[in-house]
């Protein structure tokens, strides 16, 4: 806070304290000419009289003590702009202390699961419960509360993994994140095959799951040549993909961004950028490991059933 604002706050606080004390002193004293407490001349119905009695002295003294307490509070805790209190208290230090206490409690809770393989954690009921809670707080925003994902966010309950589905790879994905990049091929394809080149590739990609669709399919035949010239480097000759690169398998029926013609044209012509954030620093390794164990259980129902068994 700037020096000017600090002095403004000091002046405001001091003037309020002095003003409250002066007002209290002025209104609590009796001045010459004031009527006696029983002589206000305000009488109703013959026997109802308004008195003008001052507050009891002990009550007035409590107001003074309140002002003294306020001065002491400001002296110890601060509150005068950028001037720190004598006790060096601050909301930031209070928050840091509370955070450190909570961190110690969490560390004690998660310590038994440190370093354990995620497929083993998926069979521990208590670890699975903790992992489910961490998933709900951190991962459900993108992947949904049931882990079934949405357009642009992978489904975690099936057996399709763009980067690999073994325990170590899943853990690496959660800890360090992933960056999936589908390059923009619209311009390159148009220069190679004309204005309809992207649609030709879409037609061919649809046949990868069912090669019989290639029969008497001119757009797909044109698309195969274009695919072999550009797409094969990542997705492979048969379209099986490459998990080392995060290139999806084009022969299954799962499409991260949808399988409509418009969506596929958009993916090929404009590209896609998919980011899985790293959670190592956000959650710490053990909590990320517990979340990964829960994710593992979603695609391995027997492990989940074993964890829920008494």
UniProtKB/TrEMBL annotation:
Pfam families: Cytochrome_CBB3 (PF13442), FixP_N (PF14715)
Signal peptide: none
An example Gene Ontology molecular-function term: heme binding
Residues that bind heme c 2: 182, 231, 234-235
Subcellular location: Cell inner membrane
Coiled coil: none
Cytochrome c domain mapped to chain residues: 126-209, 218-299
TM spans (from-to): 6-26, 62-86
Record-listed heme c 1 binding positions: 139, 142-143, 276
Any one GO biological process: oxidative phosphorylation
Summary of the function given for this chain in its UniProt record: C-type cytochrome. Part of the cbb3-type cytochrome c oxidase complex.
Family to which the UniProt record says this protein belongs: Belongs to the CcoP / FixP family.
Subunit structure: Component of the cbb3-type cytochrome c oxidase.
Name of protein: Cbb3-type cytochrome c oxidase subunit
């Amino acid at each position: 806070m700037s020096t000017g604002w600090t002095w403004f706050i000091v002046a405001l606080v001091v003037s309020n304290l002095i003003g409250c004390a002066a007002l209290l002193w002025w209104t609590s004293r009796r001045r010459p000419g004031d009527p006696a407490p029983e002589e206000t001349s305000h009488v109703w119905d013959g026997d109802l009289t308004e008195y003008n009695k001052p507050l009891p002295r002990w009550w007035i003294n409590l107001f003074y003590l309140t002002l003294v307490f306020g001065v002491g509070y400001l002296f110890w805790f601060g509150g005068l702009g950028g001037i720190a209190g004598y006790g060096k208290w601050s909301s930031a230090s209070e928050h840091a202390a509370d955070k450190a206490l909570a961190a110690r409690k969490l560390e004690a809770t998660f310590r038994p699961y440190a370093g354990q393989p995620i497929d083993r954690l998926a069979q521990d009921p208590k670890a699975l419960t903790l992992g489910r809670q961490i998933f709900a707080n951190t991962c459900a925003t993108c992947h949904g509360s049931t882990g079934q994902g949405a357009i642009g966010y992978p489904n975690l309950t099936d057996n399709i993994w763009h980067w690999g589905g073994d325990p170590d790879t899943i853990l690496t994905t959660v800890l360090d994140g992933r960056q999936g990049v589908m390059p923009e091929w619209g311009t390159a394809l148009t220069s190679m095959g004309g204005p309809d080149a992207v649609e030709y590739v879409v037609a061919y990609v649809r046949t990868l799951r069912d090669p019989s669709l290639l029969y008497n399919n001119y757009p797909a035949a044109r698309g195969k040549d274009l695919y072999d010239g550009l797409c094969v480097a990542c997705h492979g000759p048969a379209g099986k993909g490459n998990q080392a690169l995060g290139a999806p398998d084009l022969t299954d029926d799962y499409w991260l961004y949808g399988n409509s013609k418009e969506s596929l044209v958009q993916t090929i012509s404009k590209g896609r950028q998919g980011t899985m954030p790293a959670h190592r620093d956000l959650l710490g390794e053990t909590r990320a490991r517990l979340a990964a164990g829960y994710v593992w259980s979603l695609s391995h129902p027997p492990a989940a059933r074993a964890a829920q068994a008494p």
